[in-house]
Structure formats: structure tokens, C-alpha cells
Amino acid sequence: MPQMNSAGEDDLGASDEMISFKDEGDQEEKIRESAFTERDLADLKSSLVNESEVSSHPRVPESHPEAMRRTQDAQLVYQDKLTDHMEDGVKHQDEGMYKGSGYPSYPFLMLSDPYLSNGSVSALSSKVPVVQPSHGVHPLIPYNNESFSHGSHSTHLPADLNQKQGVHRPAQTADIPTFYPLPSGGVGQISPSVGWFPHPLMLSPSMHTTGIPHPAIIPHSGNKDIDCYERNMKPHSEPKREREPKKPTIKKPLNAFMLYMKEMRAKVIAECTLKESAAINQILGRRWHALSREEQSKYYELARKERQLHMQLYPGWSARDNYGKRKRRTREKHQDSSSDPGSPKKCRARFGLNQQTDWCGPCRRKKKCIRYLQGEGRCGSPVSSDGSAIDSPPSPLNSRHSMPSSAYPTAKLSSPADSVQSAQSCSPSSSSSTVRSSLISPGYKGAFLSQTVNASENS
DNA sequence: TTTCCTTTGAAGCGA
DNA sequence: TCGCTTCAAAGGAAA
């Protein structure tokens, strides 16, 4: 990822030294965005209060057209503002980046979502992961005023769906079909009986037509596969079974790479005829590194906006809230060798802060020490000129951590041509992923993935 | 039915 | 501050 070191030179290694949108110290932008966030969020909440007041009662009686009009106005105002905001954020994006791709998957251009083409049918009839179309429709986007003009589509969903999901849906507001749980202490003035308000990211045509909650919020059962939309629809196919209402889970906002993956996955699948997500993700990871700084920055910017919106909508939410919901064995798998008293010292401990020139590349980038790993005999792979591992086979336990991203021979660091080539091809570079996967362990799934990828490459 | 794989980035937490 | 862990998406494969 593009970044600048202290000398102003490019240092594309570690993510934590990359362009950080975390602080986004850009005061001007902060001011501009906070202007949106505070004012518009207030508008949003206000409009929702109005709406909730309306909907929690016998809605807005038709005998009160003025009240109805105000409610709708509030929604329209929010939609307009949100649209403006989003457009503002997207305006400067390179249109050519997506328009020629032929993939409707990019958030801002995902209008050919099956959700849209035929209402909500596809969402109910096909295997649609969670609440998003499988081909990468992201909620942060398609703001199509037209979509808000025909709210009746939401009626595709059975009337009892939202009750079972704990989603309160005022009949009057088909334009805002779903509601989210209020953040604790977020909007105190809204009555608990309402308890839901629309995530701006969700105000997309797809959401509009399907009435599906924003992906950031799904009933959570502890398993991602179970937590899919299809699964959530089960009560309809199994009406007899009483399902306990599950607490909606607020998902983490997607980071830049995740957004990139969502957009490009379909493309890679089409090009490479791969279906294995693991293999596809390897390719996507390489392509990500092959992206130009500008291209990546778009995704970082998009991710930043997502995080901001997420923070504003769920101020009390923490990523920690979702910890433990996926049963991963990483803790078991990641037997940190640092606990081994006989393990070699890392560069920091070995050379000290005053001799950072002797550190390996990852250590200089505040990543995991590869010398340390080599000392463990776990990866004796060569080290690039800057000390980065070139084709280090990862620990079978977790390739990510023994092979940090910064250690990859990114296109900009060590071998741009090779990396770009591999990134453009339908396989991870032979110098890393394939080899790594093959070396992980006999019979290890990674080997299968390598074969899959290699087969795809050969084809 | 559940977990794994695989990627990068963000965030949380303990030391 | 650093290092580690977990989760976010995806869907086929394996247990």
C-alpha cells in the first residue's frame, strides 16, 4: 500500500505505515464530514423519531396528511443529504475504474443487482449470502432516487418476517424498509418500542426492494453460514418452528481490501473459473498489491467513510462485541513460540532500537520478525534485499501471521513486474502463494488450493 | 452442520 | 508502544 516514510520516500511495505485513513488528519475533510455527520445524523434521527412516533402509533392516520407529509419530507431530506454526501465522496473517484469493468459489483455502480432486476425474488429464492448479493453488492452505495419512488416492492417479504427478526417496519415507510437496532444510548429519545432505524448505508435500491437489513446487522447465531439471509428466511419455510429472536449483530465495517474483494471477486471468478474463495482471495491479495496508489486510496477512502458512518450510527459499538461469535481455533493454532524460553530473540530484542538497520524488514515495519521465525526453523526462506521474506512458507498454523503482508514481495517493493504479472494472472505468484500452500503440510488444504490455483493457471 | 481456508485492514487487549 | 488476536466477505471443501 502506498505510503511515505519519514523521508518522504515511498515505502510500500507495512500496512501500519501506509496511508492511514484512520486519523485522516485532514481537518478540512473532517470538518466537512462532521458537518454531514452531525447535522445529517441528527436529521436522520429526527426523521426517524418522527417516523417512529408515527409508526409506533397507528402510523400516521391518513386523516393527518400533514403529519404524513412531514415524515416523508424528513426521509427525503435525509436521502438527499445522504446522497449528496455519498456523491461528494465518490465524485472524485475515477469513473473509469469501474465503468469499464463490466462488473456491477462495485458499490456505487451495483445497479444490476438481482435484487433490483426482479425485486426481492432472487434474495428469497436463491442462495444469497447474508444480506448481500453474492456478487458483491455493497450497501454503501447505489443511491438511486428512483428506487425510492416505488416502495411497494418491499411487500414481497412476508409480513411476519420483520417481526420474527425483530425488525420493525412501519407500513407507511416503504421507502425506508428496514430498521436497525439503536445503539445503546445512541438515540435516547427514540422509544424502545421502535428500537430500529435505518442505516444510511442500507438505503440502497437493493435494500429498498428487499427489505433486508443492512449487512452490518444480522441476527447472529454464531455461524456465518447460518447467519445468512436464506437461513433467516427459514421461519417461512418452517413456520411451525418457534425460533428465538436472535440478537442482531452489528458487523464490522468492511476495510479497504474487503471492499476491493467484494468488487473484484466476480471478475476473478469469471476470469479464472475458480470458485474456491481461498484461491480467489489469494489472487485478489496479489492484485491488491498491484493496484496503484490512487486505486487503492479509493478503497481506503471508501472504507474510511464506512467506518465513519458506522461509528456515527453505532457509537457504542465495538469490534469486541463480535468477538467469540465465530468459533475459531486460532488461539489453539497460534502457539506463540514467544512463550518458548529457548526461542530466538526478535530483532528488536536482539539489536535494540539503536540498531534498527540490522533489523529485518518486517521488524522495521513493526511486523513479525522473520529472523525470529527462521530461528524457529519454521521458515528458512530467503529474504529479500530489505529483509522481507520472499517465499516463506507460512506456519501451517496461520500463514498470515508468519507471513505478514508487508513481507510479501509487493509489486512496489521487490519485484514489481513479477508481482504485477502474477497479480494479473489467475494465480497467486508461484514464488509465494503456490509454494507456500504446497509446503504447508502434506494433505493440508492449502495444497489443494495450490493445485486448484495451478490448474487454473495452466488452463 | 460446522469449520477451515485465504486474503488485508481495523480494532481491541494484554504486556 | 508493541505484538498478538479476532473479525469482516466469500463459497467450496473437508471434517
From TrEMBL:
Molecular function as annotated in GO: DNA binding
Biased segments, Low complexity type: 419-438
GO biological process entries: regulation of transcription by RNA polymerase II; Wnt signaling pathway
Pfam families cross-referenced by the UniProt entry: CTNNB1_binding, HMG_box
Highest taxon listed in the record's lineage: Eukaryota
Location, primary (coarse class): nucleus
Cellular compartments per GO CC: nucleus
Domain (HMG box) ranges: 250-318
UniProt region (Disordered), positions on chain: 1-69, 318-348, 377-438
Record PROSITE patterns: HMG_BOX_2
Biased composition (Polar residues): 397-418
Record InterPro entries: Catenin-bd_sf, CTNNB1-bd_N, HMG_box_dom, HMG_box_dom_sf, TCF/LEF
Keywords linked to the UniProt accession: Activator, DNA-binding, Nucleus, Repressor, Transcription, Transcription regulation, Wnt signaling pathway
Membrane-traversing stretches: none
Bias kind Basic and acidic residues: ranges: 19-43, 54-69
DNA-binding region ranges: 250-318
Compartments (UniProt record): Nucleus
Family of this protein: Belongs to the TCF/LEF family.
Name of this protein: Transcription factor 7
